[in-house]
Each structure stands twice: as structure tokens, then as C-alpha cells.
Amino acid sequence: MASQHDGVSRRGSVGTLGTRAERIRGTRINLPSWLRDLDDSVNVIDSFMKDPLLSFIFGPTFVPRLSQWFGRVLQEGHLSRIENQVPDEHVFMSLPAHDYVDEAGLWLWTRLTATRLDAWSLSSLLSEWQWVAREEDHGIPRNVLSLRTVHQDRLTSACLDALNESRSFTHTAGFDADEFVSEALDHLRQGDATKAADIFVGVSQLRPADATVWNNLGFCQLAFNPSAALASLSKAAMFSIGDDQIRLANQAFALHLLQRHSDALELVKAALSIQSESPPATMWSPEHSGLPKTLVSVRHLPDYLRDLEEHIGKRACLGSTRN
Fold first, then answer.
1. What integer pLDDT is reported at residue 41 of this predicted model?
2. Of 75, 145, 245, 320, which residue has the fewest beta carbons closer than 10 angstroms?
């Protein structure tokens, strides 16, 4: 799991080796003197600099990502699935480089120990509001939550104050596919669709029945392997509850790339018949020759589907259909 982007600086990060290794998350560890003194050796530091794996492990992002990995694995209950396995490289490198926070545990601890709401974190306030307003318990026994009651008006006021003071808030959602979309899109925009797809290959091993994961994998594969994309999108359809305009659009695109234009047009018509509004999405541009290379932001999916339908119709009229 080497990364040149996460390599250490010449002295700054490696120089903290002894201190960080001796005290990890507040736990005292007695290290042999030769290991504590490694950061005093210029030769050792130079060796670390030249080894991508060591520079990554002792760099500033490794431990936070390790925290993210184990925290999300525990949240999703996948311990049996990762027995005797190392984390998937592409998933691991896509995790945020900051410490994992168990928001449900933090909420429970806070509501049992902090009496003043202005001392609560934003995530704890929002979790409390979800419990008071919607009875969402986040997996915590309800008899435990009933030990304390917070008045809804006070809670709403505290939430609004905290939201006004906070610039951003990111909820940790395990290995939810949406957590990895931004990283994958960066790879796609840089022309590296294989690396983008590799992320969702890794996530699919952790969430093999997640329709969104398979849809996102198929979307990435459209740029280099339409047959594999169609297979992934078929799995997305198998695990979906009802039809999804975005997935149908991607399936139609895959069929079109495979020159199955009539089948593609049928799926476009099926997608256009869906009444529910799809959220904004990033899609492959319908205007392409060969494999798609250009991404477009789509706010109104029916307009995109009509453009795709028109493009496929023109190709079909050229007599290039094969069904």
C-alpha cells in the first residue's frame, strides 16, 4: 500500500517516530532503545525516504486511515469477512486521513456524562434530535436512551446554534458507496478509470449485495470495458428495489457501447417512464465516439435520457445495430 503522495518529509514526520511509537492513543509502550533511537540516524531516515512502503507506514496518514478502516469494519460487522486478509489497497487509500469517530458511542457517552447541551458535539446533537423527533436509536438499547430526556425545543435550539458555528459536518457511514464517489470521480477526471473502478471492486467485497456499489462500479467500467460494466450493472439491477433512472441510463449506455442499440433504446424509454425524480448525478456525456471520456453534471435526468436517446437513435439509423 505504497503512495508517493503520502510519503514523509525528510525530517519532519520521521522525526516523530520515537514519540509516536512510544505513545499510541494514550497507551504506553516500552520499546527497545535501538528502535527509539532510529530517528537519530540520518542513514535510517534516508532509507525510509527511498522505500515507498516504509515512508507510507511511518507517514502522517497511515494511522488515521487504519483507524478509519477498523472503525468502519466494526460498524458494519464485517470482522469475519476480513479474517487473514489485509485491507484492499484502493479502498484503504480512499479513506479519509483523519481519525475515525464512533458517533453512536460518542452520543451515548455524551448524553450520560455531559449535562450542558453546548458541550455536546454536533454529531451527538443531531443523533439526539433524530431520537427525540423520529425515535431513531442508532442501535443503542431504548431502555438506556430512556434514562435521560431532553426537551425538543432546547435540543432544536442547540442544534441550530451548533450548525451555525460549524463549517462542515461529515457523517461516517461505514463502507457506504457514497463515501468513495469523490475519490473515484477524481480518478475519472484524470483519465484513470481503472483506478476508479478498483475502488468499488474493493467495496463490493465488503458490500456484495449493495446495488449502489455495483452501479458505481459499472459506471466506472463503461470507460474501458462495456461488457464488464453491463455485468456489474446487471448485479445492481438484481439487488435494487424497483427501477432506478440512473442505473437504467448506465445500462442503456453500456448496451449502446456494445452496439445493442435497440435494447438500449428500450431501456431509455423505460427510464423515461419512471415518475420519481432522480437526484443530481455525474454521468458520461452522450456525445461521444468510441468509449466515453467526458463527464457531465446532470441536474434533470430526463433531459439527459432524451439526449442519450437521440444519440443512440442516430447511431442506430446508420445500420450499426447488432441484437
1. 66
2. 320
Give the CATH number of the domain where residue 257 resides: 1.25.40.10
Strand-pair partners of 24: 27
Mention every residue, 6+ apart, whose C-beta is less than 8 A from residue 119: 110
Domain that holds residue 143: 103-165
> Which range among 9-18, 132-141, 245-254, 265-274 shows the weakest confidence by mean pLDDT?
9-18
Q: Tell me, yes or no, whether 112 lies in a domain.
A: yes
| H helix and E strand count, the chain | 17, 4
Q: What global pTM score does this model have?
A: 0.59
φ and ψ of 23, to 5 deg: -130, 100
From 73, 94, 115, the end of a domain falls on 94
Taking Cα atoms as reference points, which of 320, 312, 319 lies closest to residue 264?
312
192 and 211 fall within a common domain: yes
**Last residue in a domain, options 94, 113, 143:** 94
Do 157 and 264 belong together in one domain? Answer: no
Backbone angles phi, psi at 283, to 5 degrees: -130, 165
CA-based R_g, the chain, Å: 25
Q: Do 183 and 312 lie in a common domain? A: yes
* pLDDT score of 80: 56
Place of cell 433504446: 265
Sign of the four-CA dihedral 163, 169, 171, 172: negative
Residues 201, 264 within the same domain: yes
Q: 206 near 177, Cβ under 8 Å?
A: no
Residues 46-82: pLDDT tens digits?
776 777 777 777 777 787 878 777 777 766 665 555 5
Q: Which residue has the cell 426537551?
A: 151
Question: pLDDT over 70 for what percent of the chain?
Answer: 76
Residue 308 identity: L
